[in-house]
Amino acid sequence: MSEAILVVLIIVPFLAALACLLIRSSACRSFIVIATVAGLAVSSLLLQGPLAPDAGMRWAGIIDPVITGGDFLLLAIMFFLGCRYRNFLIIMLTASQLGLFAWLEFFVFAEDQGPALFAADALSLILVRVVCTVGGLICLHAIPYMQAHEQHQNLARSRQPQFFAVLLLFLGAMNGLVLTNHLAHFYFFFELTTLCSFLLIAHDRTEEAVGNALTALWMNGAGGLLLLLAIWGLYSQSAQLDMNGLVAATAGKPAALLPLSLLVLAAFTKSAQLPWQKWLLGAMVAPTPTSALLHSSTMVKAGVYLALRFAPAFAHTLLAQGLMLAGGFTFFAAAALAIGQRNAKKVLAYSTISNLGLIFACAGIGTPGAVAAGILLILFHAVSKGLLFLCVGTAEQQVHSRDIEVMRGLCAQMPFTGMIAVLGMLTIIVPPFGMLLGKWLVFEAGADHIVFYLMLVLGSSFTLLYWVRLAGTLLASGQTTGFKPEIKPFLTRFPLAALGCGAGLLGLAAPILYARLLVPLTSLFPGGRAFSAGRGGVLTTAVGSFPLIVVFAVAALIGLLALSGVSKAMVGRKGTAYMSGANAGLPDHFVGPLNRPVRAVVENAYLAPLFGEERWTLWLNLAAAGLLLFILGGALWK
Description:
mainly alpha; two-stranded antiparallel sheet
């Protein structure tokens, strides 16, 4: 049963992608996407771990040569792209990987590399379900979104076949990445996500889109080279590529710290941590489903998955300390940069980078509580951030702008999209929702590390600031000129509603998730279990308890009272802004110079002199690079 589910999760998306590429009928393509998404979602829920000790071994004779050939094909395609666009960095990085991979494959690796090709523990299961449910809902939302997107572009020939083919290929690549137990196979899926991201970012084929896609390709190519070097080093330690076996074999071995540090640096590039954030910020030029997929359920999650997977191998080392500080610094720095942004998608992008930094820090802390917090944050972040990207994309197609100020009063003009977006922001910053629960666990796990704790406090404060500002802007009383009534197709509304419900209810399910999924994984770390699920929805740690059901009930009551109060206050409330008697007779205009009407403009303060990208990005990147050198130094110090 489990092996059949693996086929559905990994092979079916590849076949569906091929079908989307070949079939030109939009109706047939939509059916393929919907059927594939439904099959993946059901299969991900049916998959249970652990798998059999020899899971997938009977396919090894087919899988190994196919993936090896796929590796060479991927690298050849990337090399061709480097030559086509005359990008020296891509050419050099890809050529280096081709030479190193060929040498390892033909002269270093033995044939028998481990007892199982696939594994499914708590971390894998959560990631598979995130990919298949959140990623699947993003694919559904993309069906009407891309139709409107291409109508706006007035294309002579639709590019949707290629777009949906890559989307589904992305889902299959991520499922393979989190389910494989073979490190060389992991490298194949790792590089496949890199190629998919290039194709999705460059989809619109504008000069900016292609340039940003090439940046993503060379930066992630650097990560691929680091990963390949890490694989070589880890293999030299225990002559195996079994990922679970490598974690056990390298734990506590000083000689393994250098390849482990290279692995961590590869994870940093894939998750766009400072100073590698440029490629993810550049991905904002792509259609919104691309942004949502990269930021919430695929690509960037590969990096934090890799760090958490190998966290037991370097727990409580100088490498782990460096990872904790680098992750905490990214959490703080990216949150600070988000404050200076008035582009809504850039706010979401910096927020993603910031939260991923917090998850990396959890891997660095390396205690059961920290790892449990990191895994829960992966889940909660994927749902809330996927929801917010889809909301911003839906709003952008109606207001024709990503500017936060243009979206002022969105809840009045697009009530469904606007209120769902505000709900998504609340699930990130207020109790009793999951993201705040995860941060509570991180605060407890990192309480003994004063520098990291200071970063955590500052980053959390900055996070609260930019989310409250954005939510308040959407709720504000804005102008109606230029807006159209919100009439959206079912495949636009359903993903938003499903993700909104998921973001709201997942926090309540945290004790169940921990008891059923996380206890077996956190038991691998020194210190045993992190906390207990308790009874009645109470999460208990050594420090205190988090009574989820009680807090949910109080929050629901306060929310209902607030809605009732706002409804009563707004009844019959109409009028123009008061301008000290200088009103010009037009809505929101005052009498200005030469007695001419001037429109009054109300805007947020973005504090660009304090938090602007132009002022701080270089210095923050240099500081982050210094922390990465500290990680390498910690490995060399041993």
